[in-house]
């Protein structure tokens, strides 16, 4: 039998840190190694200092070594690390590989923390205060990934914040689970990540069977079988893009399985929702290869995210699978569909044109009622459009839950002409609002019984779609296995209004999951951003509440910098000076995000004057990574993107929230305020490592009133 060869995720990262010449040698070595790890050309040397007797070193060249797990038992070889001779030996000296006896996952432990745990073990008798996890049996903690040898570290934790000290000491899965538990997530829910329940019998795991451990799906978050040509090539092409191959167990469980109907995936910013959605599209497409006609539709709210996703799919899908996936934002899909069906559709996107139509209609406002113009806009958006009210009769019947102004039949009759006139204005101009277009497309599909080629629909940014959009989406694929896969996060809702999937015919009961590990942002930035939303109840897209508990980032860094400058010039100076410290490469991975288009000019001028190149990311275009310079964009435009450094700038009172967003209706005011907070949350959570939030004169109340 051919030996089993695997490569750890860290091995790829370590190769990337080698000089160019050694990187090339390492890649050649991988090829040789995967073909035959027992080849006479590969010399295994034992490592005197190694705690784990299964670790060996092999030559990459004269000066560089790879560290390999080559256990006595079983024909298994795992590439773990590449480095200069001494550094590689030092790495190996501090590592121990263990198969978790409860979940069978292969884990890499640091020997120094095993020592620390042993010392703590001796002090256990002197412990006086109760431990945070006392109520949970060892067996369950081990099941959640805590290695037995490190258990004393966990038993000594007394308060939730101390869990963070374990981040560097425990395997990621153990830390993730403990962080969830410390945040109040139940043991059942934490165990469910691994499809285990409290009632399950203890597992029968052979802790010496490395080949078996590599086959465990949960080991795949850090080990790749070298026989998987496609995945290996993907990693060799872009070793830093771990998401292309190494999925979190929860991500895997969402992607690689049949679902008996629509699935909803929630998760805060940066938790890998789009990654999951892309892998899901790939999985569905690969299964549909034999049927020439069928397609997978991957739809998003914004055009630029659709372009981004299309680019990314190219990196994980073979051309035949790629051809099966249509990536398109829903507006564009509807336009294309309606045009093709002989009903050309022009959207009323031009703000000036729309204002003109409203001005014409508002002339019919009943004087006696003294209702502000905003009432009519809001009534249209909240009542008329979502409920498809197209006549006075329908308006009489329409539900107006949560609307500030009460209207009886007489009053409804008095205000109706405004809506009727606005509607005919749109019709005369040959324009549709998106809600109209969704509704028209749905009606056409239903009346003509049009069969679309989709066997699966993937929806990203689900929080921004409204009722009509979801009703249409429901209709695009027949109700069957794997039909709908919706990812979203109400905390990031910056366009649409709250929607209830169940009311759109999308039943997700029993098929709802949550991603909690933030892969993008440091814990400091994530925590700060989340606290902007504290105390606000966000929905789960289906009439429930989405709690913000149990989220964590595995990365640490500096706290966001919050500053209020005396004037605009001083703020711009700070940003410019900070950017001057970046290399050309660093600049292209930094972004200045502002609330309004008009605010950009200030920073554009400052950058031009100081000779810093910049690149404005426009509404419907891709961020062209080939372009040099710091990125300049609105907070709306950065949705779905990410940058090493974010400068969220000009966040002044009157700008966030925008003063002109005022309304007379307290419900609308609350909703708009919430949306503005979400905008800030979205902008800040684009930052991977550095985030500056600044303003001048007076900072936005969202920031100045935030508890420290
Ligand atoms: N399994 C993984 N391994 C490594 N990186 C990952 C993994 N999953 C996601 N990421 C990375 O995390 C970052 C965020 O992922 P993604 O954009 O999918 O999150 P998201 O939940 O859609 O974010 P948002 O809602 O904020 O737009 C990306 O840089 C992505 O490459």
From TrEMBL:
Reaction catalyzed: Couples ATP hydrolysis with the unwinding of duplex DNA by translocating in the 3'-5' direction; ATP + H2O = ADP + phosphate + H(+)
Major enzyme class: isomerase
Keyword Glycoprotein: no
GO biological process: recombinational repair
Molecular-function GO terms, alphabetical: 3'-5' DNA helicase activity; ATP binding; DNA binding; hydrolase activity
Domain annotation UvrD-like helicase ATP-binding: ranges: 246-554
UniProt xrefs under SUPFAM superfamilies: P-loop containing nucleoside triphosphate hydrolases, RelE-like
Keyword Isomerase included in the entry's annotation: yes
GO cellular component: cytosol
Residue positions binding ATP: 267-274
Pfam family, one: UvrD_C
PROSITE patterns, alphabetized: UVRD_HELICASE_ATP_BIND (PS51198)
Keywords in alphabetical order: ATP-binding, Helicase, Hydrolase, Isomerase, Nucleotide-binding
InterPro entries reported in the protein's UniProt record: DNA_helicase_UvrD-like_C (IPR014017), DNA_helicase_UvrD/REP (IPR000212), P-loop_NTPase (IPR027417), RelE/ParE_toxin_dom_sf (IPR035093), UvrD-like_ATP-bd (IPR014016)
Enzyme Commission code: 5.6.2.4
Record protein name field: DNA 3'-5' helicase
The organism of origin for this protein: Candidatus Methylobacter favarea
Top-level taxonomy: Bacteria, Pseudomonadati, Pseudomonadota, Gammaproteobacteria, Methylococcales
